[in-house]
TrEMBL record:
Belongs to the multicopper oxidase family. Residues 12-129, 143-341, 498-621 form the Plastocyanin-like domain. It comes from Apatococcus lobatus. This is Laccase. Pfam families: Cu-oxidase (PF00394), Cu-oxidase_2 (PF07731), Cu-oxidase_3 (PF07732). GO terms for molecular function: copper ion binding; oxidoreductase activity.
């Protein structure tokens, strides 16, 4: 096998991706660069953390995660701060080296130690088929990548984190000290370009649920310039040369594979190609039955879809829009689909209203795009527009693997209830089964702890504490055949435990995870609402990502998962096989994966700050089979808060 080699120097630069000048993180002075590697080759990335120690002000370093790559046999290379490694401190470097034994397809890379994704430290990771395009299962002429980000005018860490580390809960207050909510992004960028000044345009676009978005809504700058930072000046005019839309240039008659990547920190996006239909061919790098919903496709944070688009419209310029569906008030992002030979320019007409572009209503989006249609992708083949990809049913990953889904003897079901409780200080956390993953940096990464002691997880007061047969408040662990899930909804205890949240699984198990979404404590429609019992009516959707695996999404549903009736709806024949799925607002989802990959794998909400405040779980898998750490493993920061802090029960 070959080796794709990269040497990365991370530095801070000033840039204005959305026309607003701020400090961003660059890689070799480039913003959000792409990694290309061929299937089966090694990828070597030597990451130099050349960021000044004062930037970001609250970070102790960086680590790079390769989102969607299972890292089988390379569990030390997963790039998760405090799980697989300690972060690379400022002034030091770490060389990632692993073989890319994954299906060819579309992935992404991003920082996974703090909130630096939001400062630009992320990009596309493309795994090319051996033999290149000719060896792909679909016919197309060219390919392009569209990387979607949401963009804030504040720094990721400063916005969402305490201003000091280690964390001191005693200093916490709801809005200032320990943690505060980041509010809405100021822009959505496509390939690093957006325009937060498109407010007039946004105002026309953003009429959602009867509320028109105002110009002020898209100019929110709820952020104070940190001391020592450059003064941030808006670039006043879109005519500024740094301020432009991305062009996606196509040639009339050609078919393009567009790799759509949602690298957002927060918002759920609907991406629309005006005047064109797109056909989805892969979900998170897995082939799917080709399906088209017309011009649009939804992506949640961390998800990817590859689509085919044929340039068969009248040559001209067409809007590509990326419209938020949750977190309303976030301005949409725009790019231009430009036909070669026609001067690149903004289309003369305003972008279509969402209602006229999208064939579905807001309430249907989750069920259509996130899972339901993809659970039964065969249904729509007949109506899929040309070109028909040349792919036979035998190529479907989910078909060939379907027998694995029917091994109930080895299947273990665990359930998690995601809640948004308040900790003792009155602050908001996200919790899985009432355990909020702790935010304090430990002194050793968990993978190293487990490697040094395969029985590591047993030291916790509740071994594998996630697996609790909670069927009523206060009920304790039992050996029930019923899935381990607590379905108490709003009655769930308010004060969660904080600590390491661990699910321990054995190699060879098929693990089924039922994930229930429960009403939030504090979300009452505005994200700063008072957390009163009366306000606990709100829900939001969450993109859940599992490291180390792809999984089958068996079902999603509205309301409360029911052990008696819900399993009847599971698709055990041809479910989509992916690495990031949507937990519906006011709903549930069920996934299965094969425990075949020793390591410590995160399972978390991919909304950056949800993960940070607790929506995170470590799957400790095949603990006794973890391989030897690499020689150049980074040392942990001198300032760490605990050594093997025991987990305590509520
Ligand atoms: Cu892309 Cu753990 O994340």
């Amino acid at each position: 096998p070959g080796v794709a080699q990269y040497e990365w120097h991370l530095t801070v630069a000033q840039a204005a991706p959305d026309c607003f000048l701020r400090d961003v993180i660059t890689v070799n002075r480039q913003f959000q660069p792409t990694i290309d590697v061929t299937q089966g080759d090694f990828l070597q990335v030597n990451v130099f953390n050349d960021l000044p120690a004062t930037y970001p002000q609250t970070s102790t370093g960086v680590s790079i995660h390769w989102h969607g790559l299972s890292q089988k046999g390379f569990e030390w290379q997963d790039g998760t701060g405090y799980a697989s490694q300690c972060p690379i401190p400022p002034g030091q470097n770490f060389t990632y080296l692993f073989q890319v034994n994954e299906p060819a397809g579309t992935y992404l890379w991003h920082d996974h130690s703090s909130q630096l994704r939001a400062d630009g430290l992320q990009g596309a990771l493309i795994v090319h088929a051996v033999g290149g395009q000719a060896a792909e299962a679909w016919t197309y002429d060219e390919e392009q990548t569209l990387l979607l980000s949401d963009w804030f005018h504040g720094e990721g860490n400063a916005m969402g984190m305490t201003l000091e580390r280690p964390f001191d809960l005693t200093k916490a207050t709801a809005e200032s000290g320990h943690w505060r909510w980041v509010s809405l992004p100021q822009a959505v960028t496509i390939n690093g370009h957006g325009n937060f000044l498109d407010c007039a345009l946004i105002g026309g676009l953003g009429n959602v649920n009867g509320t028109a978005l105002s110009e002020t809504a898209c100019k929110v700058t709820d952020y104070t310039v940190p001391p020592g930072r450059s003064t941030q000046l808006p670039w006043a005019q879109p005519s500024n040369p740094g301020c432009t839309h991305a062009n996606v240039t196509v040639e009339a008659g050609k078919t393009y594979r567009l790799r759509l990547i949602s690298a957002v920190s927060l918002v759920y996006l609907t991406v629309c190609f005006e005047g064109h239909n797109v056909t989805l061919i892969t979900a998170d790098a897995s082939p799917i039955d080709p399906i088209s919903f017309g011009p649009c496709v939804d992506l949640n944070s961390g998800q990817r879809y590859d689509v085919l688009l044929t340039a068969n419209a009248a040559p001209g310029n067409y809007w590509i829009s990326a419209q938020p569906q949750y977190r309303m008030g976030t301005p949409s992002g725009f790019a231009v689909l430009n036909y070669k030979g026609v001067g690149a320019a903004l289309p003369t007409s305003a972008p279509s209203q969402p209602g006229s572009v999208k064939p579905w209503s807001l309430s249907q989006i989750n069920s259509i795009h996130s899972a339901a249609a993809l659970l039964n992708p065969g249904a729509s083949i007949a109506s899929a527009p040309q070109p028909q990809p040349r792919i036979s049913p035998d190529n479907y990953i989910f078909t060939s693997n379907a027998p694995n889904l029917q091994v109930p003897a080895k299947t273990r079901t665990v359930g998690f209830n995601q809640t948004q409780p308040l900790i003792a200080t009155g602050q908001i956390r996200w919790a899985l089964n009432n355990v909020a993953h702790d935010t304090v940096p430990p002194c050793t990464p968990t993978l190293l702890d487990v490697y040094n002691n395969p029985n590591y997880v047993e030291q916790f007061a509740v071994p594998a504490n996630a697996i609790r047969n909670l069927t009523a408040p206060g009920q304790q662990v039992g050996a029930s055949q019923q899935p381990d899930i607590y379905l108490g909804g709003v009655n769930f205890p308010d004060q969660p435990t904080t600590g390491l949240n661990i699910l321990s699984v054995d190699l060879g198990e098929v693990v089924e995870i039922v994930l229930q979404n429960s009403p939030a404590s504090a979300f009452n429609g505005d994200y700063r609402g008072a957390a009163t019992a009366a306000s606990r009516t709100g829900q939001e959707q969450h993109p859940f990502h599992l490291h180390g695996h792809h999984f089958w999404v068996l079902a999603t549903g509205n309301g409360t998962w029911d052990p008696n009736s819900s399993p009847a709806s599971y698709n055990l024949v041809n479910p989509v096989y992916r690495d990031t799925y949507s937990l519906l607002a006011n709903g549930w989802a069920v996934i299965r994966f094969e425990a075949n990959n020793p390591g410590v794998w995160l399972y978390h909400c991919h909304i950056q700050w949800h993960m940070f405040i607790g929506s995170n779980l470590y799957v400790v898998e095949g603990a006794e089979h973890i391989s030897k750490p690499p020689d150049n493993y980074p040392a942990c920061p001198a300032i760490c808060t605990y050594e093997d802090a025991p987990y305590t029960t509520p």
